[in-house]
Amino acid sequence: MFAIVDIETCGPKFAYQKGRIIDICILVHDGIQVVDKFSTLINPDCHIGSFYTSLSGITNEMVKDAPKFHEVAKDILNFTEGKLFVAHNSAFDYNFIKDEFSSLGFRFKRDTLCTVKLSRKLMPGKKSYSLGNLCESLGIVIHDRHRAEGDAVATAKLLDLLLMLKTQNPTYKTKSVSQIMTTRLDNIKKYILDKLPSSCGVYYFLNKQQQIIYIGKSVDMYARAISHFNSDLKKSKSMLNDLYNVDFVETGSELISLLLESEEIKKHKPQYNTARKKDVFTHCIDLTQREGVLSFKIVPFDESEYAFLSFTSYSSAREKLENWIDEKNLCLQYCGLTEEGSVCFNHQIKKCYGICAGQENIEDYNDRVKQLISMFSYDYPNFMIIDRGRTGEEKSIVLIRNHRYVGYGYIDESSQIMSIDDVDEYLVSKTSYPDADDIVKSWVRLKRREIVKF
Fold it and tell me: Phi-psi category of 74—alpha, beta or left, where left has phi over 0 and alpha has psi -120 to 50?
């Protein structure tokens, strides 16, 4: 069964520029003929500009008393349910309708067939595959051009012709129209999207050998997967050519999805992931105090006494420290970048206020360092972040002990945690890389969630 659809709109892409549907027609086709019809004008709840009136002939007065989209949404669902969504340039009609449903909080999902693409397959070599030009070349008369019902009827006649041509084509006659139009990527896309839920978690793209080739995370794994298939990036297209299967882990919590993604990328080092692959941290910026002055120093990771931030290379640590020096007018000597006891070069060019020359008050200098410390430190040494769980009956927890990320887990709504030691039994992951703290700190600064201090 086919649902042949045509719409008219009062603007371009609904999702971005507020164009709305003003006319819709759905013809139900059983493979032989049209057996049912739904057709109506729609009040778009916005002004129809003169350009769109001249195109379709639909005026603001004509739609004034017409139903609004939400009033006909159930009819659209019923007339398209269980049928192949057919349209000439189906992406336009389908995405417009999908976005209208999305604005109502509903996900519209149908398999589609584009008569433009099917025409190119069964009638190659045409000068133009626009509905008007194609129908004219085939002797199909369109009544009420650029009205939904007129164009839908013409599309139905075109489909009848295409179905007849299919039966005469030695390559395609034994295949369904869906099989003719379906590529390997289409099949993979449908398979992947059917498996992934619209929930928060981490997903794993696998190749034919079931090796992990990409790991991603999202608050909506289904929507994120769609973005991969819609991407024009060369890397994305290469990855899709290798894609064969998908697996996923629901986390409930966005923070846990960030932590798990980072941990899993380091563990598996997928081919198409670039960020957070390195699992060896070679250097740290240590925070110390020298003669009452809060001081930074880059040291090898194994020699760190108080690792303020950790890095996978000396150069990345140096870059971060130099940014702080420029941002807060810090002293090169008290950042370990020049000889102790000397007046630093930055003071000579007036970038350092002279803490190294005894010309700046220690408290003033330390205040600027403390501003950095507050940006990259936890507010409390021991605490637990409570966030959404995977179900309504549970909550997620992320534990910080002694200013360090320890792990994450889940508790029932009714669970009572009396001390920090009680949390350990609920943790499902205790793998901790130094950059996990960066993830938690960044997330805590941006999000407001329940925090339990110990």
Answer: alpha
